[in-house]
Amino acid sequence: MNAPADAISAAPAKPAQRAARDPVHWLLITVALLFAAVFLVLPLANVFAQALAAGFGPYWRALAEPDTLSAIRLTMIIAAVSVPLNAVFGVAASWAISKFEFRGKTFLLSLIDLPFSISPVVAGLLFVLLFGVNGLLGHWLEAHHVRILFALPGMVLATIFVTFPYVARELIPIMRTQGREQEEAALTLGASGWKTFWHVTLPSVKWGLFYGIVLCNARAMGEFGAVSVVSGHIAGQTDTLPLRVEKLYNEFDPVAPFAVATLLALLALATMLLKALLEWKTRHEP
Amino acid sequence: MTRLRAAAVRALPPSNPLPGFSITLGFTIIYLTVIVLVPIGALALKALGLSWKELWELGTNERAMAAYELSLGASLAAALINAAFGSLLAWVLARYSFPGRRLLDGLIDFPFALPTAVAGLTLASLFSDHGWLGQYLAPLGIKGAFSRLGVVIALTFVGLPFSVRTIQPEIESLDQDVQEAAKCLGAGRWRRFAKVTAPTLLPTVLTGFGLSFARALGEYGSIVFISGNLPFQTEIAPTLVVMRLDQFDYTGAISVALVLLIFSFALLLTLNTLQGWAARFNQP
Asked: B278 near B204, Cβ under 8 Å?
């Protein structure tokens, strides 16, 4: 299953050449732009407009609330743990899958794609059934005073489940098209396996890897469904930024949920900007 | 025996001198086992320990059926909208030059990069009775937020990039020679589109439709904000799972989750078949 993220590994878009003087062209362009205005531009603008509707004072106050600050911290901790793990997994899985032939590869690939097709809510439920009080490991965990569910470890695990495919999905097609001739040459010339990876493989996939990590990070920080199910919603303790948005929204606060949402919208904008930058880079340094 | 195996290994063509196979594959398998297989095993074990009768009853009772109906119906509507407007956007981006084209191209990824909670929040406010867009719908008696329409709007938003980004590369690589040939043979614009372009793009558009449908079916974050979550009216299946979990009704939650999983796998199978078809179809 292709995520739209795969676009960066595809051929760069060639500039449209045909001059659009034709009325039919203009009609199509206008309809497309109207649709984009309603579904893309207005939702983005609305986040900032609502957040700043009462001016900068309430905006800053909403962001400086202790519970919001702790949500920022928790979101960053979860990303700081899950993204590097998923990056290592992504590199290892793509190396094995794209450079070697083995039985069961298709099964492995579908397993990697699984989180794309499972509802995040169901993903969260899986961890509740494993670690919850009535879960498989619940009694053992309780007897040993280990808290996984409704605490940081459970939230990290749920985040990893939902976001681990992104780096692998980005790298596998790139590594596959590059084949293994260059690595074989380096090894023949006497380079060690690690050196070959570091100096031959990594430089040629670095932008893909970087984009995979950026995307994985965006999804990890923004994950809602899976994390919501395993978090327990303890204010100041297990609320991430998206969960904080929901809580403030349910309190009918007119400004605060949007103020917190601007942070996540800025994260999305930064992600899109990095994607554009990386596309430009891959086009200009082949 | 050992010698036999060694001979067999040596005979395997072509040998692969690259190192690190066992360690990377081993790590991959362990990681997937811990993160994916063990939790899924937990669901399977739990489900096996429950009474089938109760599972069936809770998975197919009136409230659950209403939730599936809305989930499937709204996802279908959103995927259809995305197939139409996604194709249009992809076409316009790939074929025409106009001011702001690059910006629009970048913006297509916005729903994918934006956390779904924020999507739900801003769409709910945009389409509520006093929102920028909702204020024009309210006098017409149309409720954009906290209604079934709101669910469709949110699902359209989250699925849009899946549709556009699937179709766009296909349009970019359309064979211009075939178009020229059709033109030389005297085919007009509409005839060229209907007889040459549309059939070529059909498998890809269907794949995009399937991807955005799959994305919509599992969506939860944005819906919580915009739908109002009223049982029998605006409650989708993933929301029902969460509602039942909140009431510690594990059997009820598992029953709906199993139905959702069946939907996902059926869809995944269909999509793989479709993508295979699209690949064969577009081979020169």
From this structure: yes
- In total, the C-beta contacts within 8 angstroms joining chain A to chain B are 301
Residues of B with CB below 8 A from A5's CB? 112
In a domain, A111, yes or no: yes
- What value, to the nearest 5°, has the Cα angle with vertex B116 and ends B111 and B121? 105
Per the structure, the complete domain to which residue A132 belongs is given by 66-284
- Residue A241 in any domain: the answer is yes
Distances (CA, A) of B15 to A103, A207, A253, B9: 16, 30, 65, 9
- Asked if A130 and A234 count as a contact pair (C-beta separation under 8 A), the reply is no
* Total-model pTM: 0.91
3-state secondary structure of B154: helix
Q: Which of A17, A21, A44, A46 to mutate to test the interface with B (most CBs of B within 10 A)?
A: A46
Three-class secondary structure of residue B231 per DSSP: coil
Confirm whether A131 is domain-assigned: yes
- Give B66's contacts (C-beta < 8 A, 6+ positions apart): B231, B232, B233, B235
Domain that residue B243 falls in: 53-281
In a domain, A235, yes or no: yes
Q: Distance (Å, rounded) from C-alpha B81 to C-alpha B71?
A: 15
CB A89 within 8 A of CB A164: yes
Q: How many domains does chain A have?
A: 1
Q: Give CA–CA dist B60/A230, Å, rounded.
A: 25
* CATH code, domain with A269: 1.10.3720.10
In a domain, B134, yes or no: yes
| pLDDT in single tens digits along all 286 residues of chain A | 444 544 444 444 444 445 446 888 999 999 999 999 999 999 999 999 999 999 999 999 999 999 999 999 999 999 999 999 999 999 999 999 999 999 999 899 989 999 988 999 999 999 999 999 888 899 999 999 999 999 999 999 999 999 999 999 999 999 999 988 999 999 999 999 899 999 999 999 999 999 999 999 999 999 999 999 999 899 889 999 999 999 999 999 999 999 999 999 999 999 999 999 998 888 886 5
Number of domains in chain B: 1
DSSP A96-123: HHHH---TTHHHHHHHHHHHHHS-HHHH
Q: What is the 3-state secondary structure (H, E, C) of B115-134?
A: CHHHHHHHHHHHHCCCCCCH
CA triple A219-B35-A230, angle to 5 deg: 65
Q: Could you tell me where the beta strands, DSSP code E, fall in B64-215?
A: 96-97
ipTM of the complex: 0.90
Tell me the CATH number at B149. 1.10.3720.10
> Taking the mean position of all CA atoms in its chain, how far away is CA A108?
21
Under an 8 A CB cutoff, do B218 and A261 touch?
Answer: no
Chain A residue at shortest CA distance from B218: A119
Chain B residues closer than 8 Å to A102 by CB? 21, 25
